[in-house]
Amino acid sequence: MVPSSDELHCAAWWAATLRGEGGPDVPPVSFMYAGVPVTDLRDGWTVAREAADAGEGVKRQTTRFTDSATGLEVRVDANVHADFPAVEWVVHLHNTGQQDTPLIECLQALDALLPLAAAQSCVVHYADGATCVEQDFAPRSRDLRPRASLRLQPGGGRSSSEVLPFFCVDTGGGGFMLAVGWTGEWATQFDRPEAEKLRVRAGMDHTRFVLHPGEEVRTPRILVLAWSGDRWRGHNLLRRFVLQHHRPRVNGRPLVGPLCNGNWGGTPAAVHLDNIRHIIEHDLPFEVYWIDAEWFGGSGSWGQNAGDWTPRAELYPEGFRPISDLLHESGRGLLLWFEPERVAPGTPWARDHAEWLLEVPPGVAITWADYGEHMSQAEWVLAESHRNQLNADDRLFNLGDPEARRFLTDFLSQRITEFGLDWLRWDSNIAQLPYWRHADAPDRQGITEIRYVEGQYALWDELLQRHPGLAIDNCASGGRRMDLESISRTTPLWRTDYVAPARNIAAAQCHTVGLHPWVPLNGTGGGYLKDWDEYVLRSTMSSTLVCGLWGQGDATQGTIPDDYPFEHAKQLLQQYLAVREYYHGDFYPLTEHTLADDAWMAYQLDRPEEGDGIVVVLKRPHSPFMAASLPLQALQAEAEYAVEDADRGTVLQVSGKELLGEGLRVELRGRPDSALLRYSVASRLPG
């Protein structure tokens, strides 16, 4: 997708505004300073600008606004992209003075007032987060009419719990994508105070602090990406941008989401080894062997053992090296589950490192009333339920403490080497927000969260630097930590704890269609391949896939029997791998997003540079319809396409004009049923 002149002009306007050149010498950043809006304090502030080439088509521009009276420096570090109509930035506040700064409140990394025509429409499109329900990632929209407003935030401190931190602002024929990079409690506010104005704000949910001499803090990362024309151009520009500039790398190469074989950690090593031998013997194309929770600690449930990361001797008498060695010999990798942030009472870390743990003491009642100005009552109830979902006495390992972070970095690095890990599965079954806020003094509100999030990024970055071949799976009770910063370092292989194949297969279909417009790399799975058919596979496919071979949920597994249907499993896995690369292409939903069990759901993944793509069609069990015509998107009207049916092996020649207009006709007679169709440019039609 080549940026249009309108898109580039819009991006250039944002870049100029961030330099303080879009009007008054104030960028689209705001806060209250000693009770006065910073925009009213321009007198006495100096401005300094510099620019440098950051490589890969990125120009780094830095603008410093310094208050000569107090020494507060506001530094805006922005990346201006040449290959996309995109600008992203982080704001740093640094006290260069000799005394504490005046009180800084309501810090917004983005605060912009944009013009609209009086009759112009303005719709904000966004999506639900991952709260372990059928409706996870469901698309939402709000029509912002004059005097309307919309405030969104995740609740509980995990960045994609209640809502995803990605937005599409559609002003009719164009608009911009907005993304917030903050693995904490962000908030966005859209206001249309009058017909001709749109105000957009984004930052942390709550800030009220002074900065000590020499102290510096950062804000969430903000991305603005301009688009014109159809809204799905905006979504696909965002997908391409994320894959180009915010995709994790392994050994210097862009990460490809793996095909994973999921296994429970409470399973003995001898059974794992036997299962791996079966995988090798039958040449099942799994790329990563996944070992989940319960491999550690002593007696009791795995939730009670977080903070004791010693492999259970009765399960893993030789540790994990025999497992990883066998996998590596066959060209496969090992993934192992950890949850290092939550520390359960009575564990070694709770006893030996109490000074590094944040807590909400049982005798301290933190209620919604304490935060009612900043969080809805429903969000507070949700946060409290998350905090109490495993153990109300759990502590939070303080990643904002440099000494604690060094300890945890070294500890995990040693386990990665000792165990031979290729993937570190990082879970977080704890809502951090109450712990952060309890730790803050009245004039330091937000500081604990800032230091914690900064520490999280520093820890991940250090592990990836020490282990270039490592990849990190980002889990937080499912996909509750997906934001622009986290997905730059980690990949959500398990996007929700709602295990759709075992509950409602339609939910898996909806999760794919709901999440892919915003986050191109994401995984799903659940269930066991022996029970799968093409319908289940195609309902579950995403840019990465997790599936088991044998066992029942989060329970000890047995040895795979010799009469297991290995050929059936292999055929399904190969079918997935044959189309996985298309999930990096442009995404288009072809039907409405619905959980109705009598509906069809279909989507298209298109690769215009290669002239090909796939169409996934899913007919649910109670649909009375035997056929559908699905108009495709983004094809060349003047080209002839070869359309291959993966099930029948037939190939049809269809013109791009027909596929765009009348559509691709698909006949499905089963209940349920599915189709997987691949198309490619066969020739260009004359004339």
Annotated CATH homologous superfamily of the largest domain: Aldolase class I
Q: What Rg is obtained from the alpha carbons, in whole angstroms?
A: 26 Å
Mass-distribution shape: globular
Q: Can you tell me the number of structural domains? A: 3
Span from first to last CA?
Answer: 25 Å
**Residue share in helix:** 10-25%
Mean pLDDT across every amino acid position = 93
So, CATH architecture of the largest domain? Answer: Alpha-Beta Barrel
The percent range for strand residues is 25-35%
Structural class: alpha+beta
Give a quick account of the main beta sheet: strands, pairing sense, barrel closure.
10 strands, antiparallel
Unreliable spans: 368-376, 386-390
CATH T-level topology of the largest domain = TIM Barrel
- Number of beta strands: 39
Number of helices, counting only DSSP H or I runs of 4 residues or more? 16
CATH C-level class of the largest domain: Alpha Beta
Could you characterize what this model shows?
This protein is an alpha+beta fold. The chain has 3 domains: 5-245, Beta-galactosidase, Chain A, domain 5 (Distorted Sandwich), CATH 2.70.98; 257-584, Aldolase class I (TIM Barrel, Alpha-Beta Barrel), CATH 3.20.20.70; 586-684, Sandwich (Immunoglobulin-like). Helix content is 23%, strand content 31%. It is built from 16 helices and 39 strands. The strands form 8 sheets. Strands 3, 4, 5, 6, 9, 10, 12, 13, 17 and 18 form a 10-stranded antiparallel sheet that branches. A 7-stranded parallel sheet has the order 29-27-23-22-21-31-30. A 6-stranded antiparallel sheet has the order 32-33-34-39-36-37. A hairpin with a 2-residue loop joins strand 3 and strand 4 (58-67). Helix 3 packs parallel to helix 4 (321-329), helix 8 packs parallel to helix 10 and helix 13 (505-515) packs parallel to helix 14 (534-540). It starts with a helix and ends with a strand.
